[in-house]
Write a structure and sequence with these properties.
Elements: H1 3-11, E1 20-24, H2 27-34, E2 42-45, E3 50-54, H3 59-65, E4 70-73, H4 77-88, E5 93-96, H5 103-112, E6 117-118, H6 125-135, H7 139-160, H8 169-181, E7 187-188, E8 193-196, E9 217-222, E10 224-226, E11 229-230, E12 233-238, H9 244-263, H10 270-283, E13 295-297, E14 304-308, E15 321-324, E16 327-330, E17 334-337, E18 340-345, E19 348-351
Parallel strand pairs: 1-5, 3-4, 5-6
Antiparallel strand pairs: 1-2, 2-3, 7-10, 8-9, 9-12, 10-11, 13-14, 15-18, 16-17, 18-19
Helix pairs in contact: 1-6, 7-8, 9-10
Length: 362
């Protein structure tokens, strides 16, 4: 079953019939349903029909790629949408992606389609259905996430031979990015983090002009995009000799990460998975220095459901791809984060990351 048909089956029912139309405008969800990347476009869906509108820059390729949806070039977007919804399908109640649009965009839609009634944000069925669909990855999506991860891992192996005393954090980040973009990545998952020495105590520190030196920890958090799917990994490595305290903290984080990977699986509450890492770190005396969640979903966005955190209400299910990234951050001293990606399966989990988590000393 294609993804749009699955969306139609899940959304429409006795309390949401043919007079409702769905409006999908976000880039990541347009790509999810059409497999076509574009910076502009609209996907309109009714109970039994679907229309993708895009401009002249993309129309030829869109018609070649998109097979399950009618594709039209944008001429007068709002007029075309009205014709599709009202004249062709009899829909006059529109449900947009409220999680993805601004108030200004909503007002513009209402002004441009005065004949239609927009259902209020209290109707979150579209957002919730897309969220549920995207949380469960298909076999092809998992393959693409793994491919993106392998590109990132190759970049890590490359940059380990690049790092030496005197290189700046920015140079290390740029080397990672350049390698990924020239070895198969269509884009970067996010702005690369490469921080060193005392800057590693900042979980999302920004690479700067600091030059790495012997005795530093260097934390690198980065990822690649392949066919629209993201990867995410973090490794903390050492340059030259490290102190006993650095080794201790590294091993505590590594053991916390592995405690999650040993037990995580389908049916486990995300909050309980988070607790596995958090309890271990606390038992070693570093509980006050682990502030963020243990992980998050990864897919067409770098952060998506489900979130592995103390406040999460989600329960893990087969097909979820989540990160496992505990950390300890000692202000003014150093920090350690180690991050893998895990696929939840029917019988437990499968580790998608294929590089060592042992402490690497360059």
């Amino acid at each position: 079953m294609n993804k749009i048909k699955e969306l139609q089956q899940r959304v429409y029912g006795a309390d949401m019939g043919a007079n409702y139309g769905l409006l999908i405008t976000s880039g990541e969800n347009r790509r999810y349903f059409t497999q076509f990347p574009s910076s502009d476009g609209v996907l309109a869906v009714t109970e039994s029909d679907a229309l993708f509108l895009t401009d002249s820059r993309y129309i030829e390729e869109a018609r070649n790629v998109i097979k399950d949806v009618r594709v039209e070039e944008q001429k007068d977007t709002w007029k075309q949408l009205k014709e599709f919804y009202q004249d062709r399908n009899g829909a006059n109640l529109i449900v947009p992606e409220y999680e993805k649009i601004t108030v200004a965009q909503m007002e513009r839609m209402k002004k441009s389609l005065p004949e239609m009634q927009f259902v209020g944000p209290e109707c979150d069925r579209l957002d919730k259905t897309i969220e549920a669909l995207r949380m469960v990855k298909s076999d092809r999506e998992v393959e693409d996430i793994v491919k993106a991860q392998r590109i990132a891992e190759e970049a890590l192996q490359h940059v380990l031979g690049f790092i030496e005393p005197g290189k700046t954090e920015k140079e290390i980040a740029l080397e990672l990015e350049y390698y990924m973009l020239t070895h198969g990545a269509e884009a970067l998952s996010f702005e690369t983090i490469a921080v060193s020495g005392p800057n590693t105590s900042k979980p999302h520190g920004v690479p700067g002009e600091r030059k790495v030196q012997k005795g530093d920890f260097i934390t690198m958090d980065f990822g690649a995009v392949y066919h629209g799917l993201h990867s995410d990994m973090t490794r903390t490595v050492a340059l030259g000799a490290v102190s006993e305290k650095q080794k201790e903290v590294y091993n505590v984080v590594r053991d916390a990460k592995n405690a999650v990977e040993e037990k995580i699986g389908s049916g486990m509450a995300c909050a309980d998975a988070d607790k596995l890492a958090r309890d271990h770190i606390a038992s070693c005396g570093y509980g006050d220095y682990f502030g963020h969640g243990t992980g998050h979903g990864v897919g067409y966005e770098i952060h998506e459901m489900p979130y592995v955190s103390p406040k999460s209400k989600s329960v893990l299910a087969p097909g979820n791809v989540v990160t496992d990234e505990p950390g300890i951050y000692l202000p003014g001293e150093f920090g350690v984060r180690i991050e893998d990606m895990v696929l939840i399966t029917e019988t437990g989990s499968r580790l998608l990351t294929a590089v060592t988590d042992e402490l690497i000393i360059l």
